[in-house]
Amino acid sequence: MEKYDVNMPIVLKKGVYQLNDEANFNYQLNRVINWDGGELADVQEVAGKIHDSADWKRELIGLGDMAMNEGRTGNAIAYYRMSEFFMYDGDPDKRRYYEKATKLFYEYYADFFEGVNRRIERFEVPYENVKLPVMHAVPKDESKGTILIHGGNDSYFEEFLFTVLYIQEQGFEVYMFEGPGQGGVMRAQGMHFTHEWEKPVKAILDYFKLEDVTIIGISLGGYLAPRAAAFDKRITKVVAWSVFPCFQDILVSMQPKNVQKAFHILMKLHARPLMNLVFNKKAKKSPIIDWGIKHGCYAYEAKDAYSYAKKLKLYDLEPVADRITQDMLILGANGDHFIDYTLIGREINMLKNVRSLTFRLFTDKEDAQNHCNVGNGKLVVDEILNWICRI
Q1: Which domains does the chain have, with CATH numbers?
Q2: DSSP 322-358
Q3: Quick one: which of 226, 232, 264, 227 has its CA closest to 357?
Q4: Model confidence over 110-130: pLDDT tens digits?
Q5: Which secondary-structure segment (H or E) carries 93?
Q6: Distance between the two ends of the chain, CA-based, in angstroms?
Q7: pTM score, two decimals?
Q8: With contact defined as beta carbons under 8 Å apart, do 338 and 370 qualify?
């Protein structure tokens, strides 16, 4: 099998494409292209055929097979990796395609990780009964600082390979890790999410003996990273790559206000049967709600929609917000289909003891309006690195 040419310049893709009428399918297809290594032309061919999770699985596996047959391994990795996204707990293909994509990834990009000219060193950090995978990259010249990055609710750290390499090229030492509930830690090792993110972060900081670290948390990491910083002052700067004050509120943030109010009343009343009835009814009409509940029950070990929604209340920044004393940067997106960015007001009001607080809203005029600004990663990473140097 061919390998990726490591002498090629690192390019973070830019562009927002209208590919599917359903918001989450459309977003994830953009993610396939911009973050995972897919080709726009390939995705455009199948995007209109995707109406539910079964369609997604079939079409993405089909693209992967086609790309492999044509010798386009890098593209195939993207399609196999994301084919698993809408497969649910109990589908044997879920782990199969995760492992297939991961195996191909480390074969195809081997020269980044192996040999005398390798750019990234891999580690496995012991944590409870699992091992947390870590990518470590050191700049050629004197480091401008140390960065610890992690993803969120549904990320795999392999998809951030080029982000890590780009940050390395800008002169920073980078540690990228995968924690409980993410990627292989959950799929291959069986450890599900914890809201106490300070625990895996402590394991990483202790293992590498790190001090004066900037932590960057992506998506749900917008809660997880600040949470870790509240408990560990070896973290001196915090980047929340998403507005994320409370997961339970975010679950319904894009619903009408009367629906949000009803949700909170029913949760306070512990109305499990009624909540499950409402969630299941909505899931039948909305692929994004269907995915959210099924992935949530899997990733958070919840037996039903009500239990999942209840667990999400644990992912609330407010109880620890007054312990966050570092410099903090929060990044939002004005077209985020998951998160109402106006929740930033509530988050700012929580953070009474931060050393400094910066909020940057990215917009459609910058091709950065979608969740985690998938349309313009370079713009966002440059913003983060400039902030680190400026503070």
Answers
A1: 23-108 (no CATH), 121-246+315-390 (3.40.50.1820), 248-312 (no CATH)
A2: GG--SEEEEEEETT-SS--GGGHHHHHHH-TT-SEEE
A3: 226
A4: 999 998 889 999 999 999 999
A5: helix 92-108
A6: 45
A7: 0.96
A8: no
